[in-house]
Amino acid sequence: MSLGPLRITDTTLRDAHQSLLATRMRIQDMLPITEKIDAVGFHSAEMWGGATFDSAMRFLGEDPWARARTIKAHLPATSCQMLLRAQNIVGYKHYPDDIVERFIVRAKASGIDIFRIFDAVNDTRNMEWAMKVAKRVGAHVQASICYTTSPFHTLDKFVDMAVELEGMGADSICVKDMAGLITPYAAFDLVSRLKAVLRIPVQLHTHCTSGMATSACLKAAEAGVDVVDTAISSLALSTSQPPTEAIVSSLRGKSRDTGLDLDLLAEIASYFGETRKKYGKFEGGIVGVDVRVLQYQIPGGMISNLVSQLREQNALDRYEKVLAEVPLVRAELGYAPLVTPTSQIVGTQATLNVLLGERYKVVPAEVKAYVRGFYGRTPAPMDPQITKLILGDEEPIDCRPADLLEPGFEKAAVEIGDLAESEEDVLSYALFPQVARAFLERRAKGAAREETVAAIAAALAAQQAEQAQGEAVPALATVSMWKLAGRMGRGSRFP
User: Fold this and answer.
1) Does residue 465 carry a pLDDT above 60?
2) Beta bridge partners of 117
3) DSSP letter at 406?
C-alpha cells in the first residue's frame, strides 16, 4: 500500500535558531523571507513557543505575542505551530490551570494552529488540561512522547503512552527526540509499532547532534511516519534538525516524494546563510557530530546555553566534567528525559556539583521542587540516598502538581497593575515576572515600542529592495503599532 508523500514541518523560525544560536534571531530577520517559506507547502511552520517566548522579552526587546501575530500574518497558507510545555506552558515550572487555559486561548487567537504539547517527565496527568483546552478552542492537538533511553524506557512503554494520549483526544502523536538519541532502526521499529496501533498521524522530531537524524527520518519514512521535522540547510545539522533539502532530495522520485521545490528551498537557504552571520557570537561551539550525546543526552538548545554560561563564568575548561556529571545526576533523579525544564534542572545540579567540588553541596530550589514531586511522576524511582539528602524526612507529593496551585491570573493582574495593557501582558508577567516587568516598563517608556517599529521598518526595507530588483513580493500586512504593543482595543480592560 502506498504511503503517499512525506510531509515536512519546518523548524527554522523556532527550534533551529534555538538550538544553534541561543534563540537570538530577531523577527526583522524572519519577515523578509516569510513569503517564500509560505510558498513551499510545508505541513506546518514551527515558529513560536519553547524558549522563544522568554528570549523575545529578555534579550530582543520584542513582545512575543506580537511576534506570533505578525509571523502568522505573513504565513497565511501555512499552519503555524508552537511548542507548549503542557502545565509548564513556556516556562520552567508548573502554572495554575487558569494561566494554562488563558494562555492557550490567547495563543490560538494570535495565530497558533497546532499545539505540540509535551511533559518533561512524560506524566500524562500534566498534559491532560492543556490538551483539553487546545481541543476546545479548535486547535490541532499534537501530543508528544519525549524519547529517551534508559533501563526504564522501553518500546512497549512508549507505545502504551501513545495509545493513552490518543484516548485523551490527541489529533496526532509526535515522537520528540530532543537530544538526537534515536537510531535509524529504533525510529523504524517505534514508528512501525505506533502506526500499527494508532488511528491518528505520527510525526518524528529529532536533532542531528549524534549524526543519525537524517537516516532516522528516512527509516521512519519507510515505516510510515506521516511528518518529519527539518530545518533549512543553512540552519540545520549539528544540534539542529536534519536539512530539509537532504530529505527532499533523498525521496525524490520515490513513493514518499515530498513534492517540495528544491530551487525555492535553495533561495531560502541562501537567505538564512547570510542571516546566520549576524548571530555568530551566539553559536553553541559544537561543530559537526558529537556521539557523546548518547551518553549525556543533553538536547541541542541546552548545549549552546551551557557553553555560553560556562564561558561567562570563565569555566569553559570544566565543560567536559559537567557533561560527564549530567548522566550521573539524571540516574539519581529518576531518569527523566532531558528536555526543558528537566534538562535545566539536571544540568544546573550537575554544573554546581562540578564547579563547587562537592556533589549536592548546594541544591537549587527548582531541584528541590523536582525531588518533592512538583514536576510530576518520574519515569523511575529516585535514588533514596539522594532524596534523603535533599528532602530529609519530607515525603514527596503523589498528586498532579497543578492540583496544589491556586488560580494565578487575578493575582498577577493586580501585581503588574497599569503596566499591563492587555490580558497577554498579564500572562507574560504571570509566566516571567521579573523579565516581563522589565520589558513592560521599557515599553511604557517607549523603548520596546520603538524597537518593534524599527524591526518592522527593517523588514519593509528588505522587501522594498527585493521589489526594486524585480521580484514579486507582497506588501506587508497592515500592522497597528498599538496592537503590537499589546493595546487590544476599548471596552473591558482585557478584551
Assistant:
1) no
2) 84, 143
3) P
Q: What percent of the chain has pLDDT over 70?
A: 88
Q: d(Cα 377, Cα 380) in Å, to the nearest integer?
A: 8
Quote the pLDDT of residue 344.
Answer: 86
Q: CA dist 90 to 55, 105, 117, 468, Å? A: 11, 14, 11, 40
Determine the straight-line distance between the first and last CA of the chain, rounded to whole angstroms: 51
pLDDT in tens, 166-210: 999 999 999 999 999 999 999 999 999 999 999 999 999 999 999
User: 348-385 as b/e, with b when 16 or more CB fall inside 10 Å?
Assistant: bbbbbbbeeeebeeebeebbeebbbbbbbbbbeebeee
Q: Is the distance from CB of 448 to CB of 61 less than 8 angstroms?
A: yes
The stretch 138-148 carries a mean pLDDT of: 98
Contacts of 336 (CB under 8 A, 6+ apart): 120, 121, 330, 342, 345, 346, 378, 379
Categorise residue 169: left if φ over 0, alpha if ψ from -120 to 50, beta otherwise.
Answer: left
Query: What residues contact residue 87 under an 8 Å CB cut-off, 6+ apart?
Result: 94, 95, 100, 119, 126, 127, 129, 130, 401, 402
Predicted local confidence at residue 299, as pLDDT: 67
- pLDDT bucket at 369, cuts 50 / 70 / 90: very high
Give residues with Cβ within 8 angstroms of 237, minimum separation 6: 208, 243, 288
The C-alpha cell of 18 is what? 534555538
CA atoms within 13 A on the CB side of 77: 9
Q: How far apart are CA 452 and CA 62, in angstroms?
A: 6
CA distances from residue 304 to 57, 207, 238 in whole angstroms, order as listed: 19, 13, 11
Average confidence (pLDDT) over 472-492: 29
Give 410-422 as a DSSP string: HHHHHHHGGG--S
The pair phi, psi for residue 143, each rounded to 5°, is -85, 140
**pLDDT tens string 64-87:** 999 999 999 999 999 999 999 999
Q: Give 305-310's long-range contacts (Cβ < 8 A, gap of 24+).
A: 305/22, 306/347, 306/351, 308/22, 308/282, 308/284, 309/351, 310/351
Res 243 pLDDT > 90:
yes
CA distances from 263 to 33, 248, 274, 432 (A): 14, 11, 17, 42
